[in-house]
Fold this sequence. Notes:
Elements: E1 8-14, E2 17-22, H1 30-38, E3 46-48, E4 51-54, H2 62-72
Antiparallel strand pairs: 1-2, 2-4, 3-4
Amino acid sequence: MFYNLPSVADVRQKGFMAGIELKGRLQDRVGAKVCERVRQYGVILRPLGNVVVIMPPLSISIEELDFLLAAVIPGS
């Protein structure tokens, strides 16, 4: 799902944890800007430079997972 987005440079995943590397210069704080934007939906993500870390709990429901993805990927 993330691989086809034009602003995504790379996706790394291990189990339920994923790191989405965004295109852009590090000084632009792209990852931090995305994390700030999704907080308006009640979603807390962790930025590591231009990488956004998604690490949902294993007990997340399908509905909650859909909500998380909708917050991270507008229009999904």
